[in-house]
Amino acid sequence: MGMKGIKTGMEALREDLNDDLKKKCEELVKKLNEASEAYYNGKEEIISNYEWDAMYDELASLEAETGYILPDSPTQNTGFEENSGEREPHEFPALSLAKTKQVPELQKWAEDKDIWLSWKLDGLTLVLTYDGGKLTKILTRGNGVTGTNITYLKNSIKGFPLKIKYKGHMVVRGEATISYTDFELINDTIEDDDEKYANPRNLASGTLSLDDPEKVKERHVHFNAFTLVYIEDNIKSWGQRMDLLEKEGFTVVDREEVTAGELPEAITKWTGRVESGEMDIPVDGLVICFEDTEYAATGSVTGHHATKAGYAFKWQDVSAQSELLYVEWSCAASTISPVAVFKPVQLEGTTVSRASLCNISEMERLGIGKTCILEVIKANKIIPKCIAVTKAEGEFEIPENCPVCGAKTEIRISPKSKTKTLHCTNPDCSAKHVKKFTRFVSKSGMDIDGLSIQTMLKFMNEGFISEFSDIYHLSEHAEVIMQMEGFGEKSCDNMMRAIEKSRKVHPVNFIYALCIPMIGIDAGKKVVAAIGFEGFLDRLQNKTGFEDIDGIGPEKSNSVLEWYENEKNAASLQALLKEVEVEKVILAAEAGGKCEGLTFVITGDVHHYKNRDEFKAYVEASGGKVTGSVTSKTNYLVNNDVNSTSSKNRKAKELGVPVISEDEFLERFGNV
Prior knowledge:
Layout: H1 9-40, H2 49-66, E1 87-89, E2 98-100, H3 103-110, E3 115-121, E4 124-131, E5 134-140, E6 146-148, E7 170-177, H4 180-188, H5 200-207, H6 213-218, E8 222-231, H7 238-247, E9 255-258, H8 263-275, E10 283-290, H9 293-296, E11 301-302, E12 305-306, E13 311-313, E14 320-332, E15 335-347, E16 350-356, H10 360-366, E17 371-379, E18 383-393, E19 409-413, E20 420-424, H11 434-441, H12 453-462, H13 478-483, H14 489-501, E21 504-505, H15 507-513, H16 521-542, H17 553-565, H18 567-577, E22 581-582, E23 599-602, H19 612-621, E24 625-627, E25 636-638, H20 647-655, E26 659-660, H21 662-669
Parallel strand pairs: 2-13, 21-22, 23-24, 23-25, 25-26
Antiparallel strand pairs: 1-6, 3-9, 3-10, 4-5, 4-7, 7-8, 10-13, 11-12, 14-15, 14-17, 15-16, 15-20, 17-18, 19-20
Helix pairs in contact: 1-2, 15-16
C-alpha cells in the first residue's frame, strides 16, 4: 500500500482535534441559542450577559479557526424570533451591528468621515411606520427579516406620537425600554418567583408579549428612537433626521457629533455618565454611525451585519475579587432573597461591597460557601453581580426565621424552573404587603418623597417599619439610616422633611392612602363632598354605610365597612390619626365658583399647591374642570414655565389657548 493510503499519526491527531473543535462549536451554538431564546422572549435568564459575551467570542474564534459555521450560529443571525403573535416582513431588514470592545477599531471604521455617537440601549427594538401623518404599524425586530405586529399596544407605550405633521411614508426604529426604577418596583411586587424578571430588558420583552394593553401601560414601557430608517424627503444628514423626529414629538436617544480623533475622549465622557449612576435607562454600550446616510447605505451585508450602517462599542467587563463577609437575607413581597456582603473593592470608579445572589439555586450554582472568594463585575456598569467563586469552605446557612417578622421560613421549588427560593410563612408579614405602603406614600396618597419601595423594604428588614404610623417615627432611627448604603445626611434630612410635610393632608388623599379595597381618589372625593371627613369617620364607627352617596353604592360601601371590621385596619387608622392632621375642606363645587364653566390643563411642577392633585381638587371645588390634554375646548394651560417648548405649550399656542403661571391663576381664580 502506498504512502497516500496511510494516514500519518499527525494527520489523525489533526482530524481528532478538528472534530473536538467542531463539537465545541456545536455545544456553544446550542447554549447560546437557548440563552437567546430566553433573553428575547422574556423568560428567566439562563446566563448573564458577561457569560454570553465570553461564549460568543469563543465561538467566533473557533469558527475563524476551523471554518466550521453552523447555519443557526448566533454569529450568522440577527436575533431570535419571538414565540407568539402575528408575524410580518420588515419593509427594511433590521440587521444587527458589528460589535467591538476596542476603540481603535471604531476609529478605523469611522475613517475621516463625520460620525455620531449615541447610546446602545438595552431593550427591545421596535419599528414604527407612519402614513398620512398617522401611526399605522408597530413591529418587533424579531429575526430582523420578520417581526411580530404589536400595533394594538400603540396607546400603552410612551415616547412616540400617534399623529405627526409629516404626511409622507416614514419608518422609525428605536428601543423600547423599562427604567431600572420601574424594573425594581415591578419585580419587588411580583409574588410568584416564576413571574419575576432577570433584568429590565427581560422585563421589557416579557411585557410586550402580553395581550392586555392596560397591563402593558402600567409597566411604563418607553420608546427611544435611535434612527429614522426611511423618509420620502431627501434628508441626507443623520443629525437632521434625528432633529426632525424630536420636533415631531418622539423621545430621541442622546447623541453627539464627533470625529474619529475625538472618539476616545467622547467615549470616556459617555462611559463616565453610566458609571456615575446618571442613567436610569439600561444601556449596554455605545453606537457610532455616519452623518452621511447616503454613504452609510453603500455598505454591503456580511453575515447579519450591514457593514456601514453603524458600529457598536461594548465595554470591557472589569472584575474584582473580594472576600465574602456574610450573606444578608432580605424579605420582599413573598420572597426572602440573599445578598452577598463582601470586603469593599473599587470597581469601575466606585466602591462596591454588595451584590445580589438572586436565590438558593444561584448560590448553589456559583458554589457559595460559608467563606469564599467572590469574583464580581458591574453588569452594564450599573448592577454589581457575582460571576464566580473560588476557595469556598463550608456550607452557606439558610435562615430559619423571616428577617422582618420573625416567622418560620420555608424553601419552595418552582414547578416551572425548578428554582429554589426562600419564603416567609406569615401571611400578615408587612413585607408581603409592600404594595400598600407604596400606595400610602404615593403622590395621590400622603405624598412622601424619598420613600421608594426599595427604601421601605430596607426599613422593614431593619425592623423600622411594620405599619403605616411607623413612618412617622423614622426620625428615631435617623442616625442608623444615615449610615445605610445609598443614604447620607442630606438624603436622610430630605426624607424626614417630606415625612413632616405630609403630616398635614387633604382628606381625599388620606382616604386613598388607607388602601381600602375599591376606594380610590374618585370615590374618596364623592364621600368627602357628600359627608365630609368627620362624617366618614362617624359612619365607620357606627357601621351605617355609604351606599346612599351618589357613585358609591352597596358594593363599595360594604368594602369600606369590611375593611374597618378588621381590627388591624381599625387600629392602623387610629394610630395614623394621632400622627397627622386631616384638613377640613369642602369639596362640593360652589355655584358661581371662580372656575365655573372653565376647563384647565395643569402641567409641570407646582409650588403653591402641595401637588397637581390638590390643584385639581381646588379647580373642581370652584366649579371648573381639569383635563389631561390641550384641545380647542381648553380655556387655560397652567405651566410655571410659560416659555417652555413642551408639546402642551406648543399645542396651546397653535390653538390660541392662553398659557398662564400658577401665580397668574391665583390672581384670577384664587380664593384670596
